[in-house]
Amino acid sequence: MQPPSHQIEVVVPAGLEPLAQAELARLGQHVRLAPSSASGVVALRYSGALRGLLGLRAATSVYLVRAFAIPRPKALLGDEPFRAALALVETALQLHPPDTFRTLFLSAAGADSSVLTRLKTELAARLGLVLGEEDGDLLLRLRRSAGGTGWDLLVRLSPRPLATRAWRVCNLEGALNGPVAHAMAVLTTPTAQDVYLNLGCGSGTLLVERLLLGPTRRAIGCDTSTTALACTHANLAAAAMTERCEVTDWDARKLPLPDASVDVLTCDLPFGHLVGSHETNVALYPALLAEAARVARPGGRCVLLSHEVRMIERLLAAMPDWRLEQALRVDLGGLFPRIYVLHRV
Predict the structure, then answer these.
(1) Domain ranges of the chain
(2) pLDDT at residue number 25
(3) What residues contact residue 22 under an 8 Å CB cut-off, 6+ apart?
(4) How far is C-alpha 261 from the geometric centre of its chain's CA atoms?
(5) Which residue stretches of the chain are H helix?
(6) What CATH number matches the domain at 6-156, 2.40.30.10, 3.30.2130.30, 3.40.50.300, 1.25.40.10?
(7) pLDDT value at residue 228
(8) Distance CA 255, CA 159 (A)
(9) Is the dihedral angle over the CA atoms 224, 234, 261, 342 positive or is it negative?
(10) CATH architecture under which domain 178-344 falls
């Protein structure tokens, strides 16, 4: 008997679709990628165990999708469509222990209309949930199908976005998005022999995401902020990673490391908005890039995230020590920084 095939949409930060597709490809023959009409969405047919999708690290959220050939949402209140919608929702609920979901929220145009209010109220009653004010544990989305021939119901497979890492017990303003940190770690092409250095480690997101990919010969995070270092320690402990790395108060512009001693560097550079300012970045960026070049071994890799696009590109053009391999534009909720992948010449 052939396993059931599900229509799935994986939501990712726009710009990281190829990395998400590569992660999905590692799930093997269960995945058949499909065309997607929207940026930040990877569509697919999936015939494996749905629980396997809950471990995706490049994803912000994963949705189970069903298309209903109906002219208007009101038809979902009919007996057969309602039972199909209920079964779709219960498929997601069955992936988790009882009582994981407590509230239901429906996102749709006209969600407060009488028809959709009745739909979500009846679904909640049948599922033993209460209606949520904003983003419920059980998140449903209703939209017109492509071509306007019907309506799609989408059910998020997890009670919270996958981007909400379980180990993040401490958060800082401007902290790096989990899927973006994962993408940056993947772009370093990690190996078990890496001496890895995370400059300005902040809340430790890049450190944790790199360590989740596998072992290192040595892993170091540094920051001059005592608040950031405390936050890093807390998140490393929650991720059970404390013993696998060092956390120091080094200044990224003057590292107590020998020349050519580091294989991989990463840094979420201050954007100059929530953290730092453009004026401080003018002095920080060239000093940090120069010091990173000093400690990087020939052929070493450096992956940076920055919103100071013109400044970074101007500095790199004048620095023969670094060769720009790739620049990815990423959508972070209205900000469009770049991930720069550099190699030490």
Answers:
(1) 6-156, 178-344
(2) 94
(3) none
(4) 30
(5) 17-25, 79-93, 114-127, 178-187, 205-213, 226-238, 278-295, 309-317
(6) 3.30.2130.30
(7) 96
(8) 42
(9) negative
(10) 3-Layer(aba) Sandwich (3.40)
| Cα angle, residue 280 at apex, residues 275 and 286 outer, rounded to 5° | 110
Sign of CA dihedral 203, 206, 211, 215: negative
pLDDT of residue 134: 75
Supply the pLDDT for residue 273: 45
pLDDT of residue 272: 53
Q: Check residue 255 and report its DSSP letter.
A: -
Predicted local distance difference test score (pLDDT) of residue 275: 54
The segments of the chain whose pLDDT lies below 50 read 273
**What does pTM read for this prediction?**
0.93
Contact 223, 200 (CB under 8 A): yes
Phi, psi of 109 (to 5 degrees): -65, 130
Closest CA relative to residue 54, chosen from 94, 19, 14: 94
200, 271 contact by CB (below 8 A):
no
> Is residue 247 within a helix (H) or strand (E), and if so which, with residue range?
strand 246-248
How many of the other CB atoms lie within 10 Å of CB of 105?
A: 20
Residue whose token pair is 């033993």: 128
Return the structure tokens found at 52: 């396997």
